[in-house]
Amino acid sequence: MKCDKHQSTTEERKPETMRITVILCTYNRCRSLQKALSSAAALVLPESVEWEILVVDNNSNDQTRETVKDSIRRYPGRFRYLFEPQPGKSHALNTGIRMSRGDVLAFMDDDVVVHQDWLNKLTFALHNGEWAGAGGRILPKWNCPPPRWLAPESSRAAGPLVAFHPMPQAGQIFAAPIGTNMAFRREMFEKYGNFRIDLGPRPGSELRNEDTEFGERLLAAGERLRYEPSAIVFHPVTETRLKKEYFLAWWLNKGEANIRQFGARPCTRYRIAGIPLYLLRRFAKWTLKWIISSDPAERFSNKLSAWENLGEIRECYREAAVPKKRPESCSV
């Protein structure tokens, strides 16, 4: 009996090749970058996956270029180096997207260490089109005990410490993942645009939200995002991050980014110098709680809430003084 030439057996079928690009943007962090690249080079993925690590140097003036070139020599075919002269992380991210080769784009930071199964666990559910993107678990790596004024498990600590673990099991999430550990199908950027260039850190500014804004854009459009707790990256908690000044600056910048991303409440009629009254009332409430709190951790948490509101107030005042159209995301 002859087989039809169009028939194929299960043994003859080759698994569909999945192409992944890991985009890592870096700026003047050559020491931590070396550890990040070494951990990324040790990633383990199935043979059916083609993957690369694209390092985008955002105009560093340290030994970043030499650090990446050394990894290229040590791991041929695994790393690529790009130089983006325009300051700002979003510019670097968008350059990485434009120059990537993957059907799935994953993102990691230059100061993390990734688990060897991180990329496989993060992206395995994205190849069939059911999910638009995914986020993984981010664990703080402590080098010293937390101070008394900090509650490490609180929501006010999660952002500055770069911690993300919204639920114990894998499944759909309704909050945007964090740029330290996330992945999206390439077509999401083609459909919804790239990262907003008015958000994200740059020299002289630690304004944030460039990563979560993109995820929230997808959620608002009805796309489905997945959380995978087994996709783990470790983020170091340095001495710099364990200073009150760092936490206060982080939440002040977060408040500014909130207004730049979302604006103030719609239909806000009553304002003083462009500042909605509800923000002033909220700032007064958290300031009072900060003053009367006796527990050190609770007291500082209330102060951080007040500082976030202060950032929102500052950005509203700035926008009222210099009105301008809110920038859109950068197109592919």
What's the oligomerization state? single chain
CATH class of the largest domain: Alpha Beta
Helix proportion range:
25-40%
Q: Compute the number of strand runs.
A: 11
Low-confidence stretches: 1-14
Shape designation: globular
Mean pLDDT: 91
Strand content bin: 15-25%
Rg = 22 Å
Our count of helices gives 10
CATH topology of the largest domain: Spore Coat Polysaccharide Biosynthesis Protein SpsA, Chain A
Question: N- to C-terminal separation?
Answer: 53 Å
Q: CATH homologous superfamily of the largest domain?
A: Spore Coat Polysaccharide Biosynthesis Protein SpsA, Chain A
Structural class: alpha/beta
Q: In sequence order, what are the helices and strands, one letter per element?
A: EHEHEHEEHEHEEHHEHEEHH
Domains, number: 2
Main pleated sheet: 9 strands, mixed
Description:
This protein is an alpha/beta fold. It has 2 domains: 225 residues, Spore Coat Polysaccharide Biosynthesis Protein SpsA, Chain A; 72 residues, no CATH class. The protein is built from 10 helices and 11 strands. The strands form 2 sheets. Strands 1, 2, 3, 4, 5, 6, 7, 8 and 9 form a 9-stranded mixed beta sheet that branches. Strands 10-11 form a two-stranded antiparallel ribbon. A hairpin with a 2-residue loop joins strand 10 and strand 11. Helix 9 runs antiparallel to helix 10. The longest helix has 26 residues. It is globular and about 60 Å long. The chain starts with 17 loop residues before the first strand and ends in an 11-residue tail after the last helix.
